[in-house]
Give the backbone structure.
Amino acid sequence: MSTGQDIAYAPATSLLDLYRKRELSPVEAIRLVFDRLDRLQPKLNAFCIVDHDGALAAAQESERRWHRGEALGRLDGVPVTIKDLILTRGLPTLRGSRLVDPHQDWSEDAPATARLREAGAVILGKTTTPEFGWKALGDSPLTGITRNPWGLARTPGGSSAGAAAACAAGIGPLHVASDGAGSIRIPAAFTGLFGLKPSFGRVPAYPLSAMGLLAHLGPIARTVGDTALMLNVLSAPDHRDPYALPPEDTDWRDGLEGGVHGWRIAYSPTLGYAKVDPEITAAAAAAARQFETLGAVVEEVGAIFTSPREALFTLWAAGAAKLLDAYPADKRALVDPGLVATAAEGERISAVDYLGADLVRTALGQQMAEFHQKYDLLLTPMMPIPALPVGQDLNDPATERHWLDWSPFSYPFNMTRQPAASIPCGLTGSGLPIGLQIVGPLYADARVLRAARAFETTQPERRPPLAP
C-alpha cells in the first residue's frame, strides 16, 4: 500500500490501520491525495476551494499525534471534503452562487464540519454544488460544470456534484453531502458510489435549510464500512439543530456483517408511476434477486403510493422562493435561470396550498410506516436513467418540465424522512453506473447499512476510466 493509486482508493478504515501500524503517515497520504487532486481537478472541476496549506498543517498535527500514540478521534488524519452548502471555518461557503458575498465572516463551522475537525479529519476543501443545491445536476453560475469521472461528457448528478466526482475519482474516501430531494443518492448512483441519506435529524444541521423537513445531511463514500464510520462522527449531537434526534451511544459499524437472512424485502421496479430505462430495470431486478441468494424473502410490488410529485414541487418551489427572497430582486440576472423560474412559481403558492402539500407529505410518511409493518426494506432502482450529458437539464423535454421528472424514486423518501441509500449494482452497456435504492423504516438506519453491506459483498469493485 505505497503507491498513489493504492492510497487513492483505500478506504478510510484501511488508512487508519496503516497509520496505526506506522506503514503510512497522514502527511504522506495527504500529499498523495493532493497530487491526484491537482492532476484531476482541471478535468473534473469537483472543488470550488482547495485548502492545500490548511490540510497539510492539519495532516502534520495528525502525524505528530499518531507518533505519540495519541490519535485524536475516529478519523484522525483521514482526508475529507465538505460540500459548499455547509459552513467551514476559515473558508467561504458560497453555495454555488454569485449572490453570496465572499467577504464576510466565515468563522463558524456547521455541526458536520465541527464534528469532523474534532475527530481529527483533514479537510481538503469545498466541493461544488449547483446554485443553493436547487437541482440534481452538477453546474452553477459560480463554478461552471462539474464532470463525471465515468465519462467527462456526463454530469455526476447533484446537488452533491463535486463530492461524488471527487469520491469516484479517488480524491479522498469521505465526503460530506446533503440531500433535499435526492442530492446524495442521485450523484452516488450516477458515479458508482455508496451514498446514505440518514433519517431526518440523524445528522444535526445548522443553519437550517429553507427546504425544511426535506433537507438531510449525510455521507458519500466508496464503501458501506466507511459510511458507517463517518456516520459515527456526523451523528454526534449539536445544540444548534432543534430537530436533531436525541444522542445515541451507537457505533453504526456494529452488526454490519449480520446479513439479511429471513428478512422480508419488497422490490418495486417503478413505484407504480416511473418510466425506467430497460438496462436499469434489468440491473435493479438482478440486484433484488441477489437479496434472495443472501437469504431474504423478496416480493415484487407495484404501486405503494400515488406519485407525490406535485406536493413535492410545491414544497420545493416555496423553498426556492424563500432562498432568493434574501437577496435583492435586481440581482436575479446573476442566478441560474432554472432556479429563478422555480422560485417564481414558488412565489405564487399560497399558505393554504403549502400546508396542503405538507399534509400530503405527512400522509405519505404514514403510508410508508404502514408498509414497513410488513416489509423490513424496500428496494427500487435509484435512477431511471443513466447520467445525463453535461449541459442538459432534462432527459426527455417532450414529457418533462423539471429535473424532478427524471428522478421519481428519490424525493418521496425525503418527504417521509426515512433512511435511504444508493448502492452500485452494475453498469450500462456504455459503461455508466447503475444504482439500487435501499429504503428502511424511519430511524432504521442500521438496517439499511446492514442490508447494503450484505449486498456489497456480492459486488465487484468498479472504478471509473479516469481512475489511473
About this structure: Residues 4-311+337-456 form a domain with the Amidase signature (AS) enzymes fold (CATH 3.90.1300.10). The mean pLDDT is 97. The chain has one domain: 4-311+337-456.
